[in-house]
Amino acid sequence: MKIVIDIRTLQSNFPSGIPEYTKNLTKQILKTDKTNEYWFFINNFYKNLNDLPDFIPSHRLINFNIPNKILNISSKLFNFPQVDILTKADIFFSPHFNLVALNDPSKHIITIHDLSFIYFPEFFSFRKNVWHFFQGIKKQLKTAGKIIAVSNFTKQTIIDEYKIPEEKIKQIYPGVSEFYRPLPKTNEDLKKFQVKHKINFPFILNVATIEPRKNHLGLIEAFRLLKTKKTFKDYRLIIAGNFGWNYKKIVQKISQNNKNNDIILFRGANYDDLLFLYNLATLFVYPSFFEGFGFPPLEAQRSGLPVVASNRTSLPEILNQSAILIDPYKVYELASAMEFVLNHNQIKIKLIEDGKKNSLRFNWQTTALHTLKTIQNND
């Protein structure tokens, strides 16, 4: 069987959910399956192909060399060029919805991560909302052969919003990279990172794109309330993430509440940076309004951090009883939860232990096996 995987999401050098899913799942599928033939659709007109992961063989790349805007318009309006015909693909696998022209849409298997734009269009720019509309998600889901949902929450959203038959949807959890792990405090690279960034203070960590959906405004306000207690006068808040849509309001809020430089923006964090930050932090906080899955809390748990997170959307399902869950709309509740964990060492230890066990539920080997079964229609 010839399987073409759409890897157009692999255009960022910085960790983020959907590229991480695409990269890790593709890598594990190639390790696991030695029977089928895999090709990779990139359509790379401006980007440097050298940025692609080294496990993707260059001689198996399918590159139309068409600007994406032109390709998208042609795919949408004329259903051309038809990738399955041109590549002789038996299956076209999309790790994320993205316009593609196919002669036989039943060959299309598509993963759905996050449908937050349905409920919260205000969390996205006008341009992004137009992009979502132009994608024609409903048609993609109606015509696809199979749909993979990354959580039961996402699966139910697809059923409720698009009236897709349940038997057409396979719920398969993503994995969490084994790269994230506890490091000994004597680790030389960890110590060098700590010295380089002058991290000689206790801190609370948040890892997320800096945008309204991730609820940084609420987090900053909760941290301000926490800092009114003398016990936490030395604590700082590190927010690791790149600027997203409408980030300026968040930066302005930080400036207004940052007279003592207690809030630090750590932009452009790579994989090593995140590993070190997870290992140096005292507490991880993730009060997001909407998540289709949510990688950072699990990465934090795998690294040995206690977690306080939102009780909305997929997060209760993903975290179970291994974290303290709060209403993201209630700032006092978030501040109280942070104070409770930081003040009670036994609670912190239990959250760390429970978190490690919880994070082990998610591994890429299992994800790849279930995805392969779905691709080959053997489940």
Query: Which percent bin holds the helix content?
Result: 40-55%
Question: What would CATH call the class of the largest domain?
Answer: Alpha Beta
Main beta-sheet strand count, sense and barrel state: 7 strands, parallel
Low-pLDDT regions = none
CATH topology of the largest domain: Rossmann fold
Continuous helix count:
16
Mean residue pLDDT: 91
How far is the first residue's CA from the last residue's CA? 17 Å
Give me the CATH architecture of the largest domain, please.
3-Layer(aba) Sandwich
Shape: globular
Give a structural overview.
- There is one protein chain.
- With 379 residues, this protein is of the alpha/beta class.
- The protein is built from 16 helices and 13 strands.
- The strands form 2 sheets. Strands 3-2-1-4-5-6-7 form a 7-stranded parallel β-sheet, sandwiched between helices. The chain has a 6-stranded parallel β-sheet with strand order 10-9-8-11-12-13, with helices on both faces.
- The mean pLDDT is 91.
